[in-house]
Design a protein that fits this description.
The chain is of the alpha/beta class. The longest helix is centred in the middle third of the chain and has 29 residues. The relative contact order is 0.14.
Length: about 220
């Protein structure tokens, strides 16, 4: 529908991003799906009726072009889910420095770029930001640089909320615990499903404009930490 809200999701090709796209399509959102995995992304876009775009979220020029494309197509952005990110093995002697660099750029700078690129459009629509942090963004994890990147996202979300206070723009930090997604090489048991996180995202989006769900920390009942 021409008046339906527009939802931009980064990291949309699989896991939490893809599950959220499916739930959002059912709720009537028009979708812009962004990720590097173009094959999966295009298949998902056909499934949910969205538009697929393949930016590198660590490049400012790509983020600017992504937002320009959304505005050229739809003229608005009502919700932005900065969900792109990936993890690393724990231990400060594991992974390569190049891998670390790419993770930090994606998980931290990529989120900041998504916020900056979409901010004027989001202010215009009194939109809703959702940022994927983690349980690891609330407590330090032994040997985890990934945890440090998610602490940065947690801080970024609160800093953004304070900056936008009074504008009508809402900010929600989504902080999953153990989720069974392609994030893990060895898929965990007794974990949340990506759909569990997607339902939490849709809950936050569905609240009336005067309600801002700032944080959703969601763990499986079997998770101890």
């Amino acid at each position: 529908m021409p008046d339906s809200p527009v939802f931009l999701i980064t990291g949309a090709s699989s896991g939490i991003g893809a599950a959220t796209a499916r739930h959002a399509a059912e709720a009537g959102y028009r979708l812009v799906l962004a990720a590097r995995s173009t094959d999966k992304l295009e298949a998902l876009a056909q499934e949910v009726g969205g538009i697929a775009v393949a930016p590198d979220v660590t490049r400012w020029e790509d983020q600017e072009a992504l937002v320009a494309s959304v505005l050229d197509t739809f003229g608005r952005i009502d919700a932005t889910f900065a969900n792109a990110g990936f993890g690393a093995r724990r231990g400060f002697e594991n992974e390569t420095p190049e891998f670390w660099r790419e993770m930090v750029l994606t998980n931290v700078l990529g989120v900041a770029y998504t916020i900056r690129a979409t901010l004027p459009a989001m202010r215009d629509r009194a939109g809703h930001y959702l940022l994927t942090s983690s349980v690891a963004g609330r407590r330090a994890m032994r040997g985890s640089l990934y945890s440090a990147t998610k602490h940065a996202v947690t801080a970024m979300g609160e800093a953004l909320r304070q900056e936008l206070n009074g504008t009508g723009v809402r900010v929600t930090l989504v902080e999953p615990g153990m989720v069974d997604t392609p994030f893990f090489d060895n898929r965990p048991t007794d974990a949340l499903a990506a759909e569990d996180i997607a339902r939490a995202v849709m809950y936050a989006l569905a609240q009336p404009p005067h309600v801002d769900v700032n944080e959703i920390l969601i763990r499986p009942t079997a998770q101890t930490g």
